[in-house]
Give the backbone structure.
Amino acid sequence: MRFSTNRPTRRHLLQGAAATALSAVPTGWAIAQARPLKVGLMLPYSGTFAKLGENITFAIEMLIAEKGGKLGGREIQLVKLDDESKPENAPQNTDRLVKRDQVDVLIGTVHSGVQMGIHKVVRESGTLTIIPNAGANAITRALCAPNVFRASFSNWQCPYGMGLVLGKRGVKKAAWVSWDYAAGTEAAEGFGDGLAKAGGELTKVLTLKFPDTNFQPLLAQLPELGVEAVGAFFAGGGAVQFVKEYKAAGIKMPLCGAFLTEGTLDAQGAAAEGIETALHYGDGLDNPKNNAFRKAFLDKAKREADVYAVQGYDSAQLLAVGLEAVKGKIEDEAGVYKAMRAAKIDSPRGPISISPSQEVVHNIYLRRAEGGLNKVVGIAAEALADPGTGCKL
Ligand code: BEZ
């Protein structure tokens, strides 16, 4: 069902009531302005993606602090909720933030399955939502909504870049290994599309349940597949274990992918050396914004920045663009959305913009893990936009 901008949501009804009240009380606007804006952070603070949620949070706090604690002149109050990367709890958790805590904005989350649960609620409530990681394709495709923006990536984008690079190198057949939910299976599609575009083919996809790490049965199949390369999507703790076990299994085909070595190199150690990944960020990106960002992040978090930190920072940057355009008057939804859609942001990853389906447009870099860093060695796809198939805004 297509999202209808005309449908009166609970939020619109509440706003209607608020508008009536404001016209009756001349000081209402000033009182509303004095109130801090509540920003809900629905992120994983436990489980395999805990570090991802923490880094996103540190970076959001960092951007708000850099702006003096205010965005568009409004104080910001953060309300944090641990979603545990559990899709089954997502609608209820989102309800808690939207209905009980009455957040003005929701920033979340990391896991694509949880994002689908959030989406169900916020399409109905109309809450401004900014996605700082989860790549579920549908959110900026057939299920796109005017109040939902993504500052991270679609699951299709990075693996598409990786497949393109392999195909251009002459790889004819490759396999993909991942968890069996949207982030893994949609990444496989992107990888296959990139390979096909450059004359190769994705011939096998192997999956296991999220967040399982029983990789041995999958690893045992790989040498028999007749492929020249293996691509994979895993992240956080799962990625650490997969990369170590792949190396220990002595598999000859080179391992590549998306995310696989991001924020995990210290823990992966020598097993990660030489692994190529395509991603919209790399450790050595030498631009003034990234250099300042990495230094500030290290000061705050006492650890190195990674792509998740960048995405958190950019989510807050995007919100700042919207709020600054309306001087903090978030009730001016049209003004906020218009400014966010037109945003041109100086990100640590390089310049980014927002596509018509409200998805980030960015370079996909080719990186190689070397000496504990994901070094940028080329551009896999320049200014890549998700196709946004089926989105009508
Ligand atoms: C996802 O579920 O969309 C996701 C999780 C971790 C890293 C990248 C994507």
